[in-house]
Amino acid sequence: MFSRRTTVQTAKNALAIALERTPPRFDLSQSNPTHTRLAYPSAEIRSAFETPIAAPYNPDPRGLFAAREAVAALLSRRGPAIDPSHILLCSGTSEGYGFLFKLLCDPGDEVLIPAPSYPLFDDLCRLENVQTKTYPLHYDGEWHIGLAELRAAVTDKTRAILVVSPNNPTGSYLKHTELRALEALHLPIISDEVFADYALRDDTSRVWTARESSALTFSLGGLSKQAGLPQWKVAWMCSNGPERAVADASARLELIADTYLSVATPTQQALPELLRVTRGVTQAIQARLERNLAALRRALSHCAALTLLDVEGGFYATLRLPNTRSEEAWVLELLEHDSVHVQPGYFFDFPSEAYVVLSLLTDEATFEEGVQRLVRRVQLES
Questions:
Q1: For burial by CB atoms within 10 Å, which of 32, 160, 292, 305 has the most?
Q2: Which residues 6+ apart lie within 8 Å of 22 measured at CB?
Q3: Above 90 in pLDDT, residue 381?
Q4: Phi/psi at 259 (nearest 5 deg)?
Q5: What is the pLDDT of residue 311?
C-alpha cells in the first residue's frame, strides 16, 4: 500500500529504550538553541511581527525581495556582494535539500555525502528517490576529505557533491585545496553552511563559503543556527557559478518553489528585522561555544584516556574513548550510572569505535558537570 521511500524502522535501539527509562540529568547532546538557556530579545522579536494580520498576499516564489535583500547583505559580509536574485527562501534547509534534489536528480541518480556527517541526509535523499554514496572524512590530527575515494565514488549517475562546512559533527571546514579538487569534477556542489559563522579557531586554509567555487554551487543557511530561531522556519540558498547555469538553475528553482510557497509571509516580512535584533543571540552562541570548548579542554587535561579530536567550528566536539568496550556500552553506562547523555559515533557513521559526540551549545552548568562525570567514568573504567 505504501511506498518504499516511507518505510519506517519501528524497533527502538538500546539507547532510545534507556533514555525513556532513565531521562538524563546532564544531556550533553542538546543542540536546540531554545532549550539551552540562551537569552533572547523577546520584545524586539515580537515587534518584528507587528504587521497587519490580513495584509494583501502577494507571494514571490523566491521569497519577498526585502527578505532576500537582507539575506544577501548578511552573506555579503564574507566576500563579494550577492545579487538578491540569486537567493531563494525555503522553510528550512531540509526543504532546501528537497528542492535541490528535485532540481538536479532524476529517480535513481546519486548524490555524494560525507561520512562521518549528519544522519538525516539518507532520509532526505530517499524521500526524493535519490541514492546516496559516501566519501570519507579522514582524521590524522585534523580532518580532511578523502579525495581519492571521492573521485572513485563518482559514476555516470552522480549528480552532486554535498559538503557541510563546518561539518556536523567533526567541526571541520572545507579547505581551499579541497574546493579546487571538487571543482575539477565538474559537478554541482551543495554546501551546507548553517554553522559557518561559528569558527572556533583561525585557519587561513579554510573556505568561508563555497560561493568561492567556479562550479555551480548552492550554499545553504538559515535562522535556525544563524539566529538561534529554529521555530520560525526560514532558511535560504544562494546560487553561484557560471552565469548561464545559475540563470537556468534559478528559473527551475523558482518553478519548484512556486509549487509549494511554503514560507509564511509574516515571517518573510519580519526577516530583515529578525536578522538585525538577533545579532546578540549569534554572539551569545559564539561565546557559549568558546567557553564550553575551553571547559572541555581543561577537564580533559587531567585524563590521558580521552582525546578531543580537532574542532574548527560549529556546535559539536568529538571525543575518542578507550576502545575497551563498544560505543553503545560506553554511552549506556554513562547514562545509567552517571545520568549523562552523549551521542555515539555510529549515529554519524564514524568508521570505527569508540567515539562520542557532545554539543558545545549545552548550557554551561550542565555541560561542565556532565563532562566532569564523563571524565570520572572513563578514569574509573580505564
A1: 292
A2: 335, 336, 339
A3: no
A4: -70, -25
A5: 98
User: Residues 174, 180, 181, CA angle at the centre, nearest 5°?
Assistant: 90
Q: Pick the closest to residue 124 from 149, 150, 137, 105 (CA basis).
A: 105
Q: How far apart are the first and last CA of the chain?
A: 52
Residue 145 grid cell? 576529505
pLDDT of residue 295: 98
Asked if 128 and 102 count as a contact pair (C-beta separation under 8 A), the reply is yes
**Cell numbers for 251:** 528559473
- Bridge partner list, 114: 135
Higher pLDDT pick, 50 / 191: 191
Stated pTM of the model? 0.96
When computed from its CA atoms, the radius of gyration of the chain, rounded to whole angstroms, is: 21
In the prediction, which pLDDT does 52 show?
63
Instruction: Express each pLDDT in 272-314 by its tens digit.
Output: 999 999 999 999 999 999 999 999 999 999 899 999 999 999 9
Long-range contacts of 199-203 (CB under 8 A, 24+ apart): 199/166, 199/173, 199/312, 199/313, 200/171, 200/289, 200/290, 200/293, 200/311, 200/312, 200/313, 200/314, 201/312, 201/313, 203/173, 203/312
If residue 235 lies in a helix (H) or strand (E), which one and from where to where?
strand 235-240
Q: What residue ranges define each of the domains in the chain, with the CATH number in brackets? A: 13-40+280-381 (3.90.1150.10), 43-277 (3.40.640.10)
